[in-house]
Amino acid sequence: PSPTSASQKLAEKLTILNERGNGVLIRMNYIKKTCADPKLRPSILTDKVMEPAIKYINKKFPNIDFRGNIQNLTCIQRQKSEVLTATSTYYDSFLDVIEFRDHVYELLNTIDACQCFFDIAFNFDFTKNYLDLITTYTSVIITLSRIDDKKALVGMFNCAHEMTNGSSDPSYPRLGQMLVEYDHPWKKLTEEFGPHTRSVTTALLSLKMVYPRRNLPAEQWRSAQLLSLLSAPATMLDPACCDTVSLSSFIYLSHSERWIGFLLCHSSLNSHQASQELWKMALRSGLYLTLTRDETLNIHKVSEDLFDSFKGYSKRVADIKECREHVLVNCGAMHRERRQFLRGAMKELYKVLEDEPGLLGPKALFVFMALSFSRDEVLWLVRHSENMPKLKTPEDYVDNQMAELLFYMEKLQGLMRKFNHVVQRYHVQYLAQFDALVLNDTIQNMYVCPEEESVLLSSFVSTLSTLSVKQGNEELDFRGLRMDWLRLQAYTSVNKAPLPIKDYPDLAKVMNVIQFHTKMVDSMEEMLLESSEVSILCFYPRVFEKMFSQSSEEMTMKRYLMSFPCVCAHFTQCGHPHCPEEVSVHLRLCVTFLEQIAKQTSNVVLEICAEQCNLNDQLLPKHCAESISAARHRKQKKPVPKKGEVQKEKPGAESLRKDRTVATNVDKMHLMLTELCSTYSLCTDFIVFDHIVVPTEFLLSHLETRLAEIIVRMANYNQTTQEIARPSDLLAGIRAYTASLHSLSSYISVDVTRLVKSVLLQQTQPLDSRGGQTITTLYTNWILESLLRQASNSLIVHCPTMHCFVNQTTDTEPSFRAEEFSDVSELRALAELIGPYGLKFLSENLMWHITSQISELKKLVIENMDVLVQMRNNSDKPEEMASLKKRLTGGENVLKRMTIIGVILSFRSMAMDSLKDVTLSVFDLASSAGLACEIDPALVTAVANMQTDNTSIDEEYKLSCLLLVYIAVSLPSLALDPNSSYTREHGGHNNNIHCLATAINQVAAAMFTVQNKNIMQHLKEFLLMASSALLQLGQNVERVEIKNRESVYLLLHMIVEESPFLSQDMLESCFPYVLLRNAYREVYRSFIITLG
């Protein structure tokens, strides 16, 4: 290459400045957003104390008198170090703009001096980088001009700098001058670019063959069968045609509208017809251009305002208005049709390539074309939706099928990544066996080739010729080759170049194609990013969420909804090293979308479950009474239904269909579930900001929460009316839900068993994982507040013969039938529902109530301590016992409380019996497992926990002994209660006093176990005293008082029968068996008479 073109290093400078310019642009945009957001705005700009200084600086900028008006700047003087720290980063960023500006103008002047030749079809990369640099620089200046607080920040920094160091910052005069000059940026920019008009216009006019091809309406795409592999089956294996114009127009030039504004070289619009036509075409493509991120430029308004200030541009202003009207009328519909075409084309392309991934080699260009077109349509819609003008057809700017387009973009990208090795292998062979040969032939046919250019071209051929599929990825790196090609373009594009590239179109064509093929080998990710990156959606959260909600309302779009959270995985790509703080790591959008999808899916799943539960409920035994009644009267003539009376349908009638095309509600829900579950097939997991996101876990989490709520709701507990569902009904409902939930596994790969186990296990605890009440808590509350409370008042009777509780016959209607909640089948259902953990919680609550009663009993013993001690010592002296008995108070209260304890223990025993199917082991857990123990460990623990520091073991022991004495001597009073009669039908007494047997045995055993005393000895003592007291009933001749004497006698027999420590021999030694036999005969005879 010539010394001039090589020494200027145009290619290197263009590459570096474009990268640097993007960083500066993003930094300026971040500063603008920060200063405009009240939450992020620098504190020094919001501080009320700083207001006078800011107003003064803005008014005098840039010529601020730091010494003459010190009263206005006192606040800065006081906090100069803080101000310096707070504004230094902003000041440095503005200095970066000056530095960038200097380098850009130096390079542009050099390019003009070299009289470089630009043509997108020849020196594609050189021209593209040149135009990119100009648009990037312009965007930097426009964004800078939009920062309202720039003067305040720069002025405050310099003021603090001067107060600290005694002099202004050296860069301040230039920076202040630049900020003032760019108060009206377009006017200044057009002045600066005047000398560069020729180069810029030449470069832009080279787009006249490219730009129209990129902006064809959907009808022409459709007629040309764009992106279709099936339109010409015979050529399916042929490499896709990829000349320079195709490559540039289809893939790389997505932002070409930004180039063709002609704002910086407007003079060519009046002198070149071609410029006018290209300019109008660009103005008709849309209303807004992207500066960066979500910062846009209203191109028509800006152009009109600028041209209004120039003389002789009235026709151009009219053209602008005409183009704007054209956009408003036609553009929305045109882009809508394009998106509609792309949806179908992308789907077909994906299906073919998924079936035959080998085609990804020759047809890779088709994939990148499809991705590029789709990306452009998405971004166009996002840009215009956010800034939508007033239109007669706003629906053109709303797309409720965006999910499908994004879905197939994700699918095609996934396909390219999955089969990257196929694409790579194909293109390695293509480069070595075809491109290298074509390039060599092209070089041989060149009539002039200077030595150093020849060295570069020869190195291209040798590099490509030695390629092999056996080489590793680290060896397949063509970045150096592509950079050399860019250098060669620069060398051959300067004026009077020894090898002018415009004379060798074949070389340009071959090298541009080779460049594309090398990218297919070593830069697949970069190509995918360049052609399909939609991370800008991160800066349009409102539009993005609106698109999601619109798509989620469409039934046919539900299967594509997962594309929205998957797009969030691209957000990590939108960061830039020059502004790392711009993109904060947050998953809000992604989580919002996944939560919404999971919510919709769980709603449908649980609606289907509810429907199945209703159908299952119809088959429960409780509903068969009508059918049985009808069967008994089958032979009778069927009565005619009354007018208006609807015959009840039998279960299963819903399955009979006359017309299969008529969709039931369940059909619609299954269809919706199929659609929603299909969306989970897009990916099992993906990464967003270093977080691994698993979509199905969101669904399981939603199902867990909702299922827990449903189970609690199915329990139907009403604290006011004390209503609750029967455990067997709730269990049947849960089983129906579980069975239906398992069908979800046929739609989607989720662990339903884990879900159900998690939910049901939580229901065995007092509170679930969210702190909500569980069925364990509800049933415990109901048993304590309703069932056992009524049993304590003898409204409900414990029935040993039927192993349940039954209602007493009363005048009022009971709120519930006790046997329907406490029989064996119901308690087994309860045990299955709340499990050993739930029954342990129930048992702990029961024990609390028992210990409360024992505490009250101890108080009564203490009140009657002296009398009870004497009675214990004189138990063999009837006369003294009779007199002492009259001094004893509260006997009925003692028996009442002991009966309550007995009732609670009887219910607990029944509940524990129901747990035998759910077995645990180890003695301490035996009662939780439903295994019987001679001494109840739970009761022992509860009694032991009652011990206080104030009472000694001896005192507790004394109270326990006296409590048994108290109970024994109080037993005869039970005969006075008319409800103390024994009922053979129930196997117990009407006032539940038969539960005293359980209470006396278990409470005594527990108390003496805690005190480490002999249980049998003390129960013998109790039996002796109780027998003596009851025998005295027989000496009383007043029959009225002893009406239920025989029923009370049976208590002694029950106490001995239930006790593992007492025997019948012990009983007979102190109470004649003949009395027991006569008592049984008496109560059974009265039962027979009652029945008669």
UniProtKB/TrEMBL annotation:
Residues 630-656 are annotated as: Disordered. Residues 642-656 have a biased composition (Basic and acidic residues). It comes from the Eukaryota. Pfam families: Nckap1 (PF09735). Residues 631-641 have a biased composition (Basic residues). GO terms for biological process: cell migration; cell projection assembly; cortical actin cytoskeleton organization; neuron projection morphogenesis. GO terms for cellular component: SCAR complex. This is NCK associated protein 1 like. The gene is nckap1l.
